[in-house]
Amino acid sequence: MPDNALINDPNGGMPRLLEIMRRLRDPESGCPWDIEQNFASIAPYTIEEAYEVADAIDRADWTDLRSELGDLLLQVVFHAQIAQDEEHFSFDDVAQAISDKMVARHPHVFGTESRDKSPEQQTRDWETVKAAERAERAETGTLSGVALGLPALLRAVKLQKRAARVGFDWPHTTQVLDKIAEEMAELQEAAASGDADHTEEEFGDLLFVMANLARHMNIDPEAALRGANAKFTRRFERIEALLAASGKSPQDSDLAEMDALWDHAKSEEKRRPR
């Protein structure tokens, strides 16, 4: 009979969570679902949990944030347990690696360098340290190490930032706007040709340049799109509420009526005090 003292200890902290995951992955007595998982199968859950953390922050729901951070921490523990099972590394190795990295990247806090630096200088120093780390890993290309698994808009911005560091960038926002107009024309031309693959390619080019515009305007494109999604959801739910008040649903309506209700919902928001 296994000893469940730590498992049932509400004050067990991190050792308790690690033991729970170890037991879940035990080949003989663990959970069949947890046992059959691998890095690739749980990676989508890891990404999803990170987004749910961001969502809780956006909503300023601190109780939910506590829960979502726990879910995200579980993902780290899960990956580390799989790694230990396969004899790659342990959770302690993960903790040691990130601790070493933070100390190395903050010599102005943990070393002898002066803290009397601007945030901009600290950012430049941070990038210098990261560049040295990439060189140690033989990642010598300007774009090396930008993770493929990042959300596409975020990865676009990171790629563009890397290129900008070596001078491959438009100096003025107006040039980016000109490029957007050029890409829009190319998208329209591709769409008119009926070539689906070419149209998709040109659409991607347009999104890439839009991400570049966001970077030039110091806008986080992911955050901006999340805001647009939230606005659309809020206004469409208002359309549904207005239709329901008259005994109707969207299926009973048409575009003209819903578009008018959209304008009504939009005007309601503008009248609200900010």
UniProtKB/TrEMBL annotation:
Gene3D superfamilies: MazG-like. It is an enzyme of class 3 (hydrolase). Residues 246-274 are annotated as: Disordered. Residues 37-110, 176-236 form the NTP pyrophosphohydrolase MazG-like domain. It comes from the Bacteria. One of its GO terms (molecular function) is nucleoside triphosphate diphosphatase activity. Its EC number is 3.6.1.9. Residues 261-274 have a biased composition (Basic and acidic residues). CDD domains: NTP-PPase_MazG_Cterm, NTP-PPase_MazG_Nterm. Keywords: Hydrolase. InterPro entries: MazG-like_dom (IPR004518), NTP-PPase_MazG-like_C (IPR048011), NTP-PPase_MazG-like_N (IPR048015), NTP_PyrPHydrolase_MazG (IPR011551). This is Nucleoside triphosphate pyrophosphohydrolase. The gene is mazG.
